Amino acid sequence: MPLITVTVAEIIQESPHVKSFRLVRPDGSPLGRYSPGAHIDVVGPTSITRQYSLCSTPDAEDSFSFAVKREENSRGGSSSLHELQVGDTLQISEPRNLLSIAPEAQENLLIAAGIGITPMLSMARYMDVHDIPFELHYFARCEEEAAFLPLLMDRCPERLHAHLGVTRDEQGDLLRASFVNSAEGAHIYTCGPEGFMDKVVEIAREHFPEESIHLEAFHPKEQPDASQNTEFEVELEGETHIVPADRSIVDVLQENGADVDTSCEEGICGTCIMQVLCGKPDHRDSVLTASEREGGELIAVCVSRSATPKLVLDYY
Ligand code: FES
């Protein structure tokens, strides 16, 4: 995927550990709109590529903003971005969206924890301006660590439910209460630490159909023991290749000249998704929804494998 060179136009310390970065094109031309919930690849100063949700106003064309939490054990990703200065340049991808607002939703419940607020912020900004019904539940350890809380309190106080310093048990009670009180046909969107999202999804399943639950993962899920992997065939554009037990589908396809883009190579960004024409995928990603997995028509070829002797794929 072609990258775009951008300049850091503004840096804001949003909380003790979170900075936001506003990006513009060096020549001042617009970056364009993006769809709420989208993320970009950011190639940082150490050439490490990471995915970050956009959190600026989706309809504003002049700039993009994203926010980064400085991770304690950062090996150069978040810590190097925190060293950026206004005027520095970065490379980013075009926005990609795996967390779209469901057009059929009667109400939208945005459930964020910690830095998971970032995709929810762009969705809330968009829904606020476009009169789309939503409620935003924001869980954070304390007010000081809740990035963007002052902005949300200012812009949409009647939609915001800030849950600060609540225990895990209290989280469950609050989620249940909000789900019970939501409109019929509501959709749930969640982003945050894996354990938090698991809890949101588990409780949401008690109240909503699977296709109404949407999530944005930041970390890959644990992979099954690779020693159990087996060889299978993959066909693309009439050519069949063997995928050995110790190699990924995308490795084999790229080696044979296929034009498959990748980014995270951990099953979380969605860049490598391909269409399945025949065969049954063994899904190992964190990016497809449960209904997409069950549908069996898409596969993230960087991590997923085949549950049948052969998969026939096409570009997505
Ligand atoms: S490259 Fe990110 S999901 Fe496959």
Explain this structure to me?
With 316 residues, this protein is an alpha/beta fold. The chain has 3 domains: 4-92, Elongation Factor Tu (Ef-tu), domain 3 (Beta Barrel), CATH 2.40.30; 107-216, Nucleotide-binding domain of ferredoxin-NADP reductase (FNR) module (Rossmann fold, 3-Layer(aba) Sandwich), CATH 3.40.50.80; 226-315, Ubiquitin-like (UB roll) (Roll). It contains 7 helices and 18 strands. It has helices at residues 78-82, 117-129, 149-155, 168-180, 194-204, 249-255, 290-295; strands at 4-15, 18-24, 39-43, 49-53, 64-69, 89-92, 107-113, 134-140, 160-164, 186-191, 213-216, 232-236, 239-243, 273-278, 281-282, 298-300, 305-306, 310-315. It has a 6-stranded antiparallel β-sheet with strand order 4-3-6-1-2-5. It has a 5-stranded parallel β-sheet with strand order 9-8-7-10-11, sandwiched between helices. Strands 13-12-18-14-16 form a 5-stranded mixed β-sheet. A hairpin with a 5-residue loop joins β3 (39-43) and β4. α4 runs parallel beside α5. The radius of gyration is 20 Å and the shape is globular. It starts with a strand and ends with a strand. Bound molecules: FE2/S2 (inorganic) cluster (FES). Residues 262-265, 267-272, 285, 287, 300, 302 line the site of FE2/S2 (inorganic) cluster.
Query: What ligands does this structure carry?
Result: FE2/S2 (inorganic) cluster
The level-1 CATH class of the largest domain: Alpha Beta
The unreliable regions are none
Approximate helicity band: 10-25%
- Supply the CATH superfamily name of the largest domain: Nucleotide-binding domain of ferredoxin-NADP reductase (FNR) module
CATH fold descriptor of the largest domain:
Rossmann fold
- Largest beta sheet: what is the strand line-up? 4-3-6-1-2-5
Number of domains: 3
- Structural class, by secondary structure, is alpha/beta
**Order of helical and strand elements:** EEEEEHEEHEHEHEHEEEHEEHEEE
| Beta-strand percentage range | 25-35%
Shape: globular
> What is the residue-averaged pLDDT?
92
Count the DSSP helices.
7
